[in-house]
Amino acid sequence: MEDSISKQMIGNRLRKLRKEKGFSQDELAGYLEIPRSSFVNIELGKRNISVAELMKLSELLGFSLDRFLSKDYEMELDIQKVSEVEVSYRQTRISIPELKLLKLKNIILYLLEKSGGKANMEERMLFKLLYLCDFNFYEMYEEHLTGVRYIKLSSGPVPARTEGILREMIEQRLLKRIKVEYKGSPRIKFLPMVKPDLTKLIAADKEVIDQVIDRYSDWSVSAVNEYIQSDLPWKATEEGDFIDYELVFYRECPYSARNYDHSDL
């Protein structure tokens, strides 16, 4: 454990993350296989937490261990709400994407409508399918699908700002966040409360999204994560950095979206 931050700071950060994700102290104590009193003392800064325990929590709650332990760590929970105004693109293609908020919300609803009922479709799986949609679309059409930027974390690619967007969708009653047990561990799932507005998606959008759903939605979270981490955009990116969309043009089979070989499935 690094000496850069105190036990109290670690406890405060864990408590904020736990509450944001909707977990109780009992649930996370059970997940770590420790008494609730021990977890309470961690949050109060009265008990040390091991690196192994933090790594396990980082997998469930979706945070980078290095960033979490740094002095200048800024909680992603403080993300400002995103404007509903959809950003227009410049005529020339850009490598730094701009967020297409309305399209993103409808793609999330579409992914959940098509595969949200599957047992493996927890929050992390949603993020991974969204990542594959975005990067496959960029390789196919050299344009951004949603404009989301993804950070490379040990738990997989994490879409930046999405926590705030999901919170907005819950407040707008577009989504409902629920907790479920999956293979003996607590997980977060989202249920769509409305149907996606398919007028916000063009044929090319839907084609790529449907390909991702058909190919990957039945895989386990770990299998999809292993697949992504074997792909060049992930391998060429440093931990904690944004994954550059331009790296998709250096993909090789079976990862290239332009050369699917269904015999590999």
Q: Count every beta strand, where a strand is a DSSP E run of 2 or more residues.
A: 4
Mean pLDDT, to the nearest integer, reads 83
Tell me the structural class.
mainly alpha
Strand order in space, largest sheet = 1-2
Q: What percentage of residues falls in helices of 4 or more residues?
A: 40-55%
Task: Report the portion of residues in β strands.
Answer: 5-15%
Radius of gyration: 19 Å
Q: Number of helical runs?
A: 11
Q: How does the major sheet shape up?
A: 2 strands, antiparallel
| Net shape | globular
Question: How widely separated are the two ends?
Answer: 41 Å
Order of helices and strands: HHHHHHHEEHEEHHH
Low-confidence stretches: 75-95, 260-265
What distinguishing features does this structure have?
265 residues; mainly alpha; 11 helices; two-stranded antiparallel sheet; disordered C terminus; 4 strands; 44% helix
Summarize the structure.
The chain has helices at 7-21, 25-32, 36-43, 51-61, 65-68, 101-115, 123-141, 162-171, 203-216, 221-229, 232-235, and strands at 150-153, 156-159, 175-182, 185-192. By secondary structure, it is mainly alpha-helical.
